[in-house]
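Problem 3 from the worked examples.
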Amino acid sequence: MQRVLFHQTIFGPIHSRRLGVSLGINLSPNDGKVCTFDCLYCEAGYNAQGSGTTGMPRRAAVASLLEARLSAMRAAGEPLDVITFSGNGEPTVNPDFVGIIDDVTALRDRYYPQVKISVLCNSTMLGDNAVAQALRRADNCILKLDSAIDGTIALLDRPVQPKFTAEWVIARLAEFGDKAIIQTMITRGTHNGIAIDNSTPREIEALIEAYRVIKPREVMIYTIDRPTPERSLQRVPKEELDDIARRITAATSIAVQVSA
């Protein structure tokens, strides 16, 4: 079974295709996964591997570890573009997420004031007002919408919450408006004999209509880059992604960033 990628609370810096030189914050356990999606493409593996033994890192530990890393990096003159909440699961389910956002902001201001704070979020916790307000305090609030069709969401993202539907999440995303950057994974393949393809004209038209409603600052479309738990999933060629991006921008006037 494919297992978690990150075995530290603070990891990197790594070079992100979308964000540049990124220092990561993993708010999930270091030896397990806690997520409200169970995506077929998740590089950290399926939720079935379990939540591990270390537990989610608490606020004080995150602040201490981050300060030590930022202090050492600044002393060494290391470059940094962004501090990114990512890791082995959904960061907003950590019970200390709201306070951690405030601590990370204060430490960023002290050590690397020019650096952006980004949160990669699967959008499942947007109904929690405290979480939503904390997300708005990030410089880059990167919120997931892989499909605007319920059947595809159920097949590709596999949300663990029954209430998570396209209608529900699009309404929550629209509350963020131009504070949001919408992130959409484009892929195709099969799972348990069922075809999955969110690059079809029907899928893209549904996404375009959703983007019109949400009115985000930007859309990021990307495809798989590393091994995935569902091995049949395929990379979508950059030429196709570029064409999809042109269609989105022509229909919505929203800027689209492509990563392939």
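Problem 4, a separate protein:
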Amino acid sequence: MKTALQIILLFVIVGLGWLVYKSVQEPIIFQENYDLRKAAVVERLKIIRDAQVAYKATNDRYTGGFDTLINFVKTGNYKITKNEGSLTDSMLNAGMTEKEALKLGIIKRDTVYVSVKDSLCKNIAPEELEIVPFTNGAKFELGAGTIKTSSNLVIPVFEAKVPNKVFLKGLDEQYRINLDDEAKQLGRYPGLKVGDLEEANNNAGNWE
């Protein structure tokens, strides 16, 4: 009888130990996986943002369709301005401006065209631009439009986003729900996004 009680007690101790270990490890494991997935999604959103900025530089607007954006990345070029030369400290101390330096030829500016694919998508195929990392082919939501500022200026905007429930699928559901609830209480989007369709935010990401 005594041996049986000792065995039962041993199982109880082991069980309690496992529950304690699990309660400590679960949030750590979730956070590690969350950080890993978040970093990959943020990196992809940054590339989308750069592609949209290049697209707007060429077309004076953003696109709300990945088909258009991907085709632009594959085949498009956009112009950048390269500066040659610079003002020295003595020139700056003498009050010379960049505009004056340009007139004198001290600084030269050239407009060149570069491949969007070669400059923005060196590490991924253009077709992967719309795919959310760590998912089985889930796609980012993409939209574009215009908004009117308080000074009645109409400006183009875009937004690319993915909810937590998509890129965190497969991880502990309760911890994900907690993240969503926290974001909603703070009036934030429960996921990761860049840009905004309702306000001009200079294409900022909500992780920044």
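Solution to problem 4. Residues 148 and 165 are 32 Å apart (CA to CA). The mean pLDDT is 85.
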